[in-house]
Amino acid sequence: MKNIFQICLLLGMLIASIHCKMWVFGPAELRAKFDAGAVIPCSYGDFGTIPYGTNIIGRIYFDKENKDGCNTFTKELDTSGDPDATITPIILVERGTCTFAKKARNVQEWGGALMVVIDNKPLENPEQIIMVADQSGKGIVIPSVLISEKDGEILTKFLTDSDPVKATDASIEVEFNIKRTDGNVKVEFLTSSTNKVGLQFMEKFRSFYMRLKDSLNFKPHYVVWGCRGGGCEADEHCFNGTYCMVPYPSDQWNGVEILGEDLRQKCIYNLYSNQGDIEKWFEYLKKVLKMEKPTINQDESESVRYILGFQIMEE
Hints:
Layout: E1 13-15, E2 21-26, H1 28-31, E3 39-40, E4 42-44, E5 54-61, E6 90-94, H2 100-110, E7 114-118, E8 144-147, H3 149-161, H4 164-167, E9 171-176, E10 185-191, H5 196-212, E11 216-222, E12 225-226, E13 238-239, E14 243-244, H6 255-274, H7 279-290, H8 298-307
Parallel strand pairs: 5-6, 6-7, 7-8, 10-11
Antiparallel strand pairs: 1-10, 2-3, 2-9, 4-8, 5-9, 12-14, 13-14
Helix pairs in contact: 5-7, 6-7
């Protein structure tokens, strides 16, 4: 879980009106295995270069000897059968084992034009998941998308079970367009209570939000990491053995304490945004920033809320 906390530095302002759209281009036998239109729900990763206003159509590949894409691809990439005039290999990899950034870099170095990550959690809706990369994501230029475990299994099974000639016809198309909106912009902000750069950004963003709030749908998301490798039940950085956060090496707080403050900030946002008074959330962040601490504990948070005249919620 080394350096996980640094992933994305969580300052991505993600415009939710950008909707991922993917469908099976061919052959008809593969299209028939999906619902009408052969559409595959997906979401974009926040790393790489997304070619907005264009489509990528390409043959799909799946290396059975490097399923998760965590190792360097050594096989020669056969680009025959690509349905587009431009050779755009689309590489399928399974989620897990290593970071999204490492997978994307390996795919890019293999010659892939697009990485498709197959989720490993059966109940997750890929349209509600955002893939983020750590600081090693610099230099990645290919886009990446996430699809469900179920849809990924259909694609990989077709590739592995079909004869080689038929497998070369398997292709998908991904659309990178920004759909028209009703005039309101939906912005999602990924952060953590220990992200001081994020707090500083919010302090500056606050005045712009107040001027644009009638046409801006803003929502913060506090990033939580899942347990990797087991043994998280006794890990001081994981709550209930499931939800984890790793602090910087210099931080004096453990992951559970960071998660506690993340949850308090999210609860404050939910409470006052529902009351139409999001200014209180901004004011709380301002006070926390001025404390100049990596994070604050429950007693310190309660003291700040008392000073600001907030409702004190039971924890």
